[in-house]
C-alpha cells in the first residue's frame, strides 16, 4: 500500500490516504482555512501524477481538514501573506508559486481519472482553481464560492478567465469584478458546481469515502449520488437577468454608470463595492473575462501567468496594486488601500496584456 503514496514534502499540510480504488487528498492547513502554500501545490501535483499511472487508483477525491467548533473551509485561496513577503523580498518562490499552481490547475482539468472536489465551506480563489476542473464538484449548505481577488488588487486567476467566462450571460463578469460569494444553488445553476449534499448527510459521505469499501470508480460516484439532493436556491435566473442588464455593457465605465443610476438597493450596493476596488485591476479583470470566452484553458492560463507577473513586477513591489491590497487586508488590516492611479490608465491596462516572455520561453509554454 505504501508505494501508492509517494514521498511528500509539505510536512503534513497535505495528507494522502488510499481506500480501495480511491485516492484521497486532504488539505491540512485548517488554521489558515486550508489556503495553499507552494509545498502543498507540489504535493498535490506529485500525488496526482503518481496516481494517474497506478491502475489500482481509479478515482481521486480532495477535501479540506475541518476546524473543531468552527465553520468548515475547503480552501480559502493562496497564501497571500507569503505573496506580500516574497514580493518585497524579491523571492523567486513567488514566481514558482504561480507557475506551479497554474500547472496544477491544468493538470486537474485534464486528469485522466475521475477527480472529485468535496467543496464544503469556504471555496475561494485557489480553492476554485483546484475544484473547477473536477469531474464532480460536490457542494453543501455551507459552501461559499467566490473569486474575490479584486478586493486585494489582483484579478480572478487559477483559470478564472476560463471558467467564469463560461457562466451563463454575464454572470462571470459580475463574479469576477464584484467578488460576490454565492451558495450551492446558484453555483450549480451557473455551472460552478454539480451535486448538492445536505449538511445532515455530509459527515456520512466523508466517512463512507474514507472508510467504507470503494472497489470501483462507479462505486465512489454512487456513494456520493445516493446522498445527493436538490440544492436550495432563490431565483438565479431572475438574478442573472439583473446582472446582465449592467454587466453586459461594453466598458467598465458604462457598467459603473449603469449601476450608479439604477434605483434598486442591489445595484447601489454593487456600485459602492466596486468603487472600493482598484480601477486598474477592475479594468484588467473585465478584459480577462471578455478575452477568456475565446481562449482554451491552456491559453487562458498562459495569459493569466502574464498578468500575475505584471501584477507584482510591472511597477515593482512598492507600487504594486496587489501588494498594496494585501497590505490593507491582511498585513496592516486597515482596510484602506491606496490605489494608484485613482482613475484608469488605458496604456497601463494594455501593458498588462503584453507578455513578458516570447512564446518559446513562456513558463507554461508546454500546456496542451
Automatic annotation (TrEMBL):
Q: Which residues form the Enoyl-CoA hydratase/isomerase domain?
A: 23-349
CDD domains to which the protein is assigned, alphabetical: crotonase-like
**Keyword Hydrolase found:** yes
Q: Superkingdom of this entry's organism?
A: Bacteria
> InterPro entries this protein is in?
ClpP/crotonase-like_dom_sf (IPR029045), ECH_dom (IPR045004), HIBYL-CoA-H (IPR032259)
User: Keywords of this protein's UniProt record, alphabetized?
Assistant: Hydrolase
The protein depicted here goes by the name: Enoyl-CoA hydratase/carnithine racemase
Organism the protein comes from: Roseateles asaccharophilus
Q: What lineage does UniProt assign to this protein's organism?
A: Bacteria, Pseudomonadati, Pseudomonadota, Betaproteobacteria, Burkholderiales
Amino acid at each position: 500500500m505504501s508505494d501508492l503514496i509517494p514521498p511528500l514534502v509539505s510536512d503534513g499540510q497535505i495528507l494522502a490516504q488510499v481506500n480501495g480504488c480511491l485516492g484521497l487528498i486532504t488539505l491540512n492547513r485548517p488554521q489558515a482555512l486550508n489556503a495553499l502554500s507552494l509545498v502543498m501545490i507540489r504535493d498535490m501535483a506529485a500525488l496526482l501524477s503518481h496516481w494517474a499511472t497506478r491502475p489500482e487508483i481509479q478515482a481521486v477525491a480532495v477535501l479540506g481538514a475541518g476546524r473543531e467548533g468552527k465553520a468548515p473551509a475547503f480552501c480559502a485561496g493562496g497564501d497571500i501573506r507569503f505573496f506580500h513577503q516574497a514580493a518585497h523580498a524579491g523571492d523567486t518562490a513567488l514566481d514558482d508559486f504561480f507557475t506551479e499552481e497554474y500547472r496544477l490547475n491544468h493538470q486537474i482539468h485534464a486528469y485522466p481519472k475521475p477527480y472529485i472536489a468535496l467543496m464544503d465551506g469556504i471555496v475561494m480563489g485557489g480553492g476554485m482553481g483546484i475544484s473547477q476542473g473536477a469531474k464532480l464538484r460536490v457542494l453543501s449548505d455551507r459552501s461559499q464560492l467566490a473569486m474575490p481577488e479584486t478586493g486585494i488588487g489582483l484579478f480572478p486567476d487559477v483559470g478564472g478567465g476560463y471558467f467564469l467566462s463560461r457562466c451563463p450571460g454575464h454572470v462571470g463578469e459580475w463574479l469576477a469584478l464584484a467578488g460576490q460569494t454565492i451558495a450551492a444553488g446558484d453555483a450549480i445553476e451557473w455551472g460552478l458546481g454539480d451535486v448538492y449534499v445536505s449538511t445532515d448527510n455530509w459527515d456520512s459521505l466523508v466517512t463512507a469515502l474514507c472508510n467504507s469499501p470503494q472497489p470501483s470508480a462507479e462505486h465512489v460516484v454512487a456513494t456520493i449520488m445516493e446522498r445527493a439532493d436538490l440544492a436550495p436556491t432563490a431565483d438565479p435566473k431572475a438574478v442573472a437577468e439583473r446582472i446582465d442588464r449592467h454587466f453586459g455593457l461594453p466598458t467598465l465605465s458604462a457598467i459603473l454608470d449603469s449601476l450608479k443610476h439604477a434605483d434598486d438597493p442591489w445595484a447601489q450596493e454593487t456600485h459602492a463595492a466596486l468603487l472600493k476596488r482598484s480601477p486598474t485591476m477592475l479594468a484588467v479583470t473585465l478584459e480577462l473575462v471578455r478575452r477568456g470566452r475565446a481562449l482554451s484553458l491552456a491559453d487562458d492560463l498562459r495569459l493569466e501567468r502574464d498578468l500575475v507577473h505584471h501584477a507584482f513586477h510591472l511597477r515593482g513591489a512598492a507600487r504594486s496594486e496587489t501588494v498594496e491590497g494585501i497590505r490593507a487586508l491582511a498585513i496592516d488590516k486597515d482596510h484602506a488601500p491606496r490605489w494608484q492611479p485613482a482613475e484608469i490608465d488605458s496604456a497601463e491596462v494594455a501593458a498588462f496584456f503584453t507578455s513578458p516572455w516570447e512564446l518559446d520561453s513562456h513558463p507554461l509554454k508546454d500546456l496542451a
